Amino acid sequence: MSTATDSARSGKRTEKRTAPAGARPGARATTWRGTDSASPPARTPHGRAETPAAPNRLRTALAGRPVLRRLLPLLAAALVLVPVAAALWGSGGWPQQLAVDVKTPLDDAYDWVVDHRETNPVFLYFLLHLSNWAEISVDAVTGFLLQLGWLGVITAAVLLAWRIGGAGLRGLRTAAVALAAFAVCGVLGMWEATMETLALMAVAVSVSVVAGLVLGLAAGLSDRFDRVLRPVLDTMQIMPAFAYLLPLVLLFQIGVPAALIATVVYAVPPMARLTSLGLRGADPGVLEAVRSLGAGPVQRLVTARLPLARKEILLGLNQTIMMALSMVTIASVVGAGGLGEEVFSALSTVDVGNALAAGIPIVLLAVWLDRTTAVAGQRVAEGADHEATGVRKVLHGRRAWALVAAAFAVIVPPGRRFLVEEWPELWVVDIARPVNEAVQWFTAHLATGVPVVGGTRVWADGFTTGVLSPLRDGLQAMPWWSLVLLAAVLGLLAGGWKAMCTAAAALALIGVIGVWDKSLDTLSQALAGVVLTLVLGFAIGVLAARVGWVDRALRPVLDVLQTLPQFIYLIPVVALFNVGRAAAVAAAVLYALPAVVRITVQGLRQVDAGTLEASRSLGASTLQQIRQVQLPLARPALMLALNQGVVLVLAMVVVGGFVGSGALGYDVVFGLQKSELGTGLAAGVAIVLLGVALDRATQRRPDRA
Amino acid sequence: MNSPTHDPTNPEHMTNPEHMTNPEHMMSNDRSAAAAPVFSVRDLWKVFGPKAGHVPGDRELAALPQAELRERTGCTAAVRGVSFDVHRGEVFVVMGLSGSGKSTLVRCLTRLIEPTSGTLEFDGDDLLAMDKDKLRELRRRRASMVFQHFGLLPHRTVLDNVAYGLEIQGVGRAERRARALETVAKVGLEGLENRRPGQLSGGQQQRVGLARALAVDPEVLLFDEPFSALDPLIRRDMQEEVIRLHREEGRTMVFITHDLGEALRIGDRIALMRDGEVVQIGTPEEIVGSPADAYVRDFVRDVPREQVMTVRRAMRPVAATEDATGPVVAPTATVAEAVEAVARTGAPARVMENGRCLGVVDQDGLLRVIAGLGAGREEVAA
């Protein structure tokens, strides 16, 4: 009952110092925090002194400046520590004395692994089996899909989509999406690559779903397990996909097993998290009623908790599938094959046409998978098959499945007799050449030398020399301790002491492992990306929240953009801006923008309509409404948008290593391709640390919301 | 178990000693002596908070008012030393304002909330000593509960919701569906069997909740503010439904409510709670006619007394001079009914039971009851 006590306590306190009539609720907190420090400590309940024993004058000076008050201890500590640190180790980049060579031991470890792979029991009896199993299962599924032939796969996909979508228009629409997606994959000449990707996806998703369900179930039922799992999932969620690849390559070498396991690890968190969330979020009233009827723990789980969590579990499935698709494409760097491989090799020769030919199937797969799983979720939410009548009653439950199986049996075997299994050559359209010609035309006419406006590549160059380079040089010129201090300050302001320590420690560790300058380069790109994302995102978000048709027009676009794997964003930016840091930043902005816009719109929408109406009734102008009511009240959401923007931009800037953004991302790619594990792994760790530091520096503590 | 008559903690003695002479009260005591109570609750405590177990045993802490207790120990005593019996076949209403501990109390009865201390017997079985399996068995077959917010499973049809309790018991599909269908009909939900709870109105949903509790044919039905979430008109319907079910089946019911009108309408006996304590236990007539303290008096002030009080309260002995004429009323008749009879004939009415004349009610006596001046009348009834 400690929460009840707390709330009662604070309730009493507010009562004692009722804010002046007409004060805004937001202002009240500061009002009585001010009174708190000015009044004698005896007035606090329980006679506990809550004000620090600071001199009276200082206290008055700080009254009403909560930000300064919170930072005071940290600033005091910095005042002592910084001169000492600066005197000892200088004020330039990260001091050599504080760096540790991690590259050599890592390279040694790699050599050791290479030498002992054949002999060490851990490899022989565990990892090797895992690796074999991964290889075999993916091969089996690929073989099965290719055996089935294109007709079989398309028929199965269409029928499945129709069954999940249900009778009526929605089912037909889902089926149409499936048909279009697979047909285009074939037409673009990517049938085999698509099947490889699909097979890898199928295996990865099944394993992730099972693992996620088990973890989610455990976390949903046991508080202790939840406490252990939650921070792990939190960290996994801010880890860029890129960082997962290297350790797995170390263990499994380049190839399908590494890609598969990386995908599984990357895709498990949403399933586990949402399953646990669904189990915990079940209506307590229902659970109590079930208990009152004498249901045992297993009965409760099977008949009530799991069915009540169905919606969340399906959402988890949807997200897991999308994450897996994203990772499967990125994992092409470690030999996943399939569509990602095609994009990857095309991009490395700046062959936009071929990259697009492989990219479009990825987009279509994403749309197909997202639509199908989202529709399944919708139907569950609506209570699905209620009161089926007429035709729908026939197409209900098991009968519909039987119909699907029958249709498949009727169409596929005869079809395979007449048509070859492989996608017919005649039906393949080569889009690479026309696309490349278009890109060339674009490069020649619009990329440079357009009067007045310049051109896309001119902008990119300008952005690089005008923004990115000065920012990077500025960061690298800053004394190392000032950056650590800055991280600490931001962490303290955003999240409190724990966040402060984590943020500062993460940043310091980057220096310790010797990638300080490269990380600052990545950081400069991320910062530029975040600023651009937020400016664009908030502007679009405010517009969409206020203007109905903008929101309606935007929504489907955001839906599609949010489902796309990271890799896809690289294709258009390379066409527009060539390779380089500006391209990476542009891709990052594109990648992070949908989430930021969406959170902004939701935050603004949730602002109490009554408050907004009241301000309108007082004659507030549109700008006043936005500035004085909507934005302040939506602050928690905007902070969340900032946090998400930072995490997403960083993840994408790092992937930019594929298109010449240099810095940490390039080190990872380089490490992977040249087996320079030391370099790659150090960069990978730095990416994670940078992610943690940025996340903690921007993550608002939930209980202060 | 001690007989309630000799139990020093018996609430009937504790809270209302001056009414021992009340014939109605004597009667209820006689009945309890004849048949063992269904629930027998003695000195039951439920304390939430750190080291809750210390509070009931500690005389000093136990006597503290709620706010001070919280200040001292961080604990909240939701139920404080409550004792009562629920007799077979009666509707026992626990009523109180929100936060008075009544919902906690009813949950303690099947240990949905574990009581902190006290004794609790169900049909003579020690409920607090039951292990998990026995308790589960009790919940499955002997005591079912109806909840304020229904607690229906949204993914099941009405029929499957009603059959849920039977499913938990392990009854086969065909049988439980047949029994559920009967129950659905009993609460007037025919034709809605295949709907889902989300498609029903609040009143219909609560009928499903009621049917679910009835389907397992329990000895006792527990209601936790079942109609508080419903519109007034529908609430009225549902109350009548409960009264009808009780009349038809005679099932024992424990009914929690914060609505005094509801308590008076359906309760055979009412326990009035405040801050976790039972302030008074009695029939509606006793509560309204002889409030135990100022709190209860304040509570029942606006009750239309003539509809709750019986003629026993307005009765005076037959005077020697009176002849045996005038209208006849039963001792269980309300004052309102006697008023009507007296006004119609213009003469005092005789209260007759089994051919014996218990006393006479005249205009003066009736008016005194309606005005709330009934004191000084009861002793003659003995």
UniProtKB/TrEMBL annotation, chain A:
Q: Which InterPro entries match?
A: MetI-like, MetI-like_sf
Main localisation, per the record?
A: membrane
Residue limits of the ABC transmembrane type-1 domain? Answer: 194-373, 519-698
Spell out the residue ranges making up region: Disordered. 1-55
Q: Which domain of life is it from?
A: Bacteria
The Low complexity compositionally biased stretches are 19-35
A Pfam family name for this chain?
BPD_transp_1
- Cite the entry's keywords alphabetically: Cell membrane, Membrane, Transmembrane, Transmembrane helix, Transport
By its UniProt entry, which CDD domains does this protein fall under? TM_PBP2
Q: How does it sit in the membrane?
A: Multi-pass membrane protein
Record's subcellular location: Cell membrane; Membrane
Which regions span the lipid bilayer? 71-90, 140-162, 174-191, 197-221, 242-269, 352-369, 400-419, 480-513, 525-547, 567-593, 645-665, 677-694
Q: Which family does it belong to?
A: Belongs to the binding-protein-dependent transport system permease family.
Q: Which PANTHER family did the record assign?
A: GLYCINE BETAINE/PROLINE BETAINE TRANSPORT SYSTEM PERMEASE PROTEIN PROW, GLYCINE BETAINE_PROLINE BETAINE TRANSPORT SYSTEM PERMEASE PROTEIN PROW
Protein's recorded name = ABC transporter permease subunit
